[in-house]
Amino acid sequence: MRLSAPVYSLKRQARLLSRKDGIPLHEALDRIAAQEGFVSWGLLAARDAETSPAGRLFARLTPGDLVLVGARPGHGKTLMSLELAIEAMRCGRRSVFFTLEYTQADILGRFRAIGVEPTQFEGRFDFDNSDAICAEYMMERLATAASGTLVVIDYLQLLDQRRENPDLMTQVRHLRSFAGERGLILVFISQIDRSYELSTKPVPDVGDIRLPNLLDLSLFSKTCFLNKGEIRFQPT
């Protein structure tokens, strides 16, 4: 059953209905769910988790995976990665977000933009935007992470931006070995080359990843590409 709007938009409708009619939020959520053809909000949310792109991708992930999520700016790669982190936390796992681009307030704002209150995952979400982020730094920070922890790295091409860091290929190889040993899932957000804008393909693929430095893309076990609302999972 296709929803009339994304879940975060339906949650917004429920909050407005709760204030307008002076009813508890859970009752408003159930009313919205009924309009969508579900007996309760819990059933609607469960179905959405099964059928949403993030839910479908998360169901394919196993400990040790290296996942690449690629899109041109503004097409949802950061939100997709955060939704994967949310799926992991809903399963009781921990998620870690490493970024050289965003502040913690930015990321918490993204959570709220998709209808998720960060406080519900207190103790299961870690944020790190240190200037020292590289493979060695992340492996030190994740040394005690439990198997199944989902780690988002924002973003791939920045890892070897500092000259003192090892080259990108070396770092990704180290991270792949580390993920396999520790049972972690690493999600790399990736830029797409500007030349893709001139192509006729509906979504990018591995050939469109922007690589200023050499990288063996077969190091990634799974890929996800997005463009204008279309999402495709592709092999490397």
Molecular structure report:
With 236 residues, the chain is of the alpha/beta class. It has two domains: 7-51, no CATH class; 56-234, Rossmann fold, CATH 3.40.50. Helix content is 39%, strand content 15%. The chain has eight helices and seven strands. It has helices at 7-21, 25-35, 41-51, 53-60, 77-90, 104-113, 135-141, 168-182, and strands at residues 66-70, 95-99, 125-128, 150-154, 185-190, 222-227, 230-234. Strands 3-2-4-5-1-6-7 form a seven-stranded mixed sheet. 36% of the residues are buried. The mean pLDDT is 91.
Average pLDDT number: 91
Roughly what percent helix?
25-40%
CATH fold assignment of the largest domain:
Rossmann fold
Name the beta content range: 15-25%
From the spread of the alpha carbons, the general shape counts as: globular
Give me the count of strands. Answer: 7
What separation lies between the terminal Cα atoms? 31 Å
Number of domains: 2
Number of helices: 8
Helix-strand category: alpha/beta
Strand and helix order: HHHHEHEHEHEHEEE
Radius of gyration, rounded?
19 Å
